[in-house]
Amino acid sequence: MNTLVKKWIEPRDIKPESEYEEAKRKFEMAMGNPCITIRLEIPIGFEGFNSEFLKLEKDQQFHEEVKDLIKKRLLLDARRKKSS
Q1: Quick one: CA dihedral 26, 27, 29, 33, positive or negative?
Q2: Spatial distance between the Cα atoms of 64 and 67, rounded to a whole number of angstroms
Q3: With bands split at pLDDT 50, 70 and 90, how would you rate the model's confidence at 24?
Q4: Considering Cα of 32, then 27, then 65, then 72, what sign does the dihedral take?
């Protein structure tokens, strides 16, 4: 029984999974579906909203709002480059 518990506690080699994720990302980029992954932390002073914050990850309206923000940012950057 001790051996079984020790097996669970010992760190596992994450390398194959990370290699898979990297290969998957490169494939998606090559297929024309680039994506980015960002880590967002709850803003300081909003610690009382933990559950609401965590729900945003699956909130489709939130995702649409972020997509709109990205579109605005990319268009603004493009305009800045043209005027330079």
Answers
A1: negative
A2: 5
A3: confident
A4: negative
